[in-house]
Specification:
The chain is an alpha+beta fold and 216 residues long. The protein folds into two domains: 3-128, LON domain-like (Archaeosine Trna-guanine Transglycosylase, Chain: A, domain 4, Roll); 136-214. The chain is built from six helices and six strands; from the N terminus they run H-E-E-H-E-E-E-E-H-H-H-H. The chain starts with a helix and ends with a helix. The relative contact order is 0.15.
Length: 216
């Protein structure tokens, strides 16, 4: 692929908008360099996707705090990299995580979905994350144990040829963490802090199970 063609697809610092449509998803985590498949069936969010496809193909993924319409303050921008319209009037799409954002304010659009003014200056380094040095084998082992405790299957084939950066995003997004833990991971200041938060959550969950078992 030529550089000119590659540049047409890449999102740089100057391409990040200060206004985004929001897609609130409970207990769902999108991280920079992560990939998130979505099945869109509500008319208001189909409208949102179709509008986004006319522009920069960027959507803000954010967790709702509760049923009141309030959101957590920090989410992650996802770029639509592929989509399919289904015969039963749904849109199945894939998002690539680009960069985190902070919500300044939000407004309900005429289409029934929220638009938000966002700030990304504190997270612009997300776009050019450096491949981290991690204990890959140890981290996979911890995640596998966590999945087992939660009675979830983990297919290790999906991470066989991933980079450390992709591994960290993929396993973390797949893991059945609760919404508060997921938000804490998302809000970690940088990649080193994110890894610390992930390890702490994994260790605490393992300790609870081991501690509970040893008392009986």
């Amino acid at each position: 692929m030529g550089e000119d063609t590659k540049n047409l697809f890449e999102i740089g610092m100057n391409d990040i908008p200060d206004h985004l449509p929001l897609f609130p998803l409970d207990n769902v985590l999108l991280l920079p360099f992560g990939k998130l498949p979505l099945n869109i069936f509500e008319p208001r969010y189909i409208k949102m996707v179709l509008e986004s496809l006319k522009k920069q193909r960027l959507i803000g993924i954010v967790q709702p705090k509760d049923n009141s319409g309030a959101f957590f303050n920090i989410g992650c921008i996802g770029k639509i990299t592929s989509f399919i319209e289904t015969p039963d009037n749904r849109i199945v799409l894939n998002l690539d995580g680009i960069c985190r954002f902070k919500i300044s304010d939000s407004q309900l659009s005429q289409g029934g979905y929220y638009n938000a003014n966002v700030e990304t200056v504190d997270f612009i380094h997300d776009i050019n994350l450096v491949e981290p040095m991690i204990d890959r084998e140890g981290l996979i082992k911890k995640f596998a144990q966590f999945f087992k405790i939660k009675k979830y299957d983990l297919d290790l084939n999906i991470i066989e040829e991933t980079s450390n950066l992709q591994l960290l995003s993929t396993l973390t997004m797949l893991a059945p963490f609760n919404k508060i833990d997921k938000q804490a991971i998302l809000e970690a200041q940088n990649l080193i802090d994110r890894l610390k938060v992930i390890n702490t959550i994994l260790d605490l969950n393992t300790f609870r199970v081991v501690g509970s078992t040893s008392q009986h």
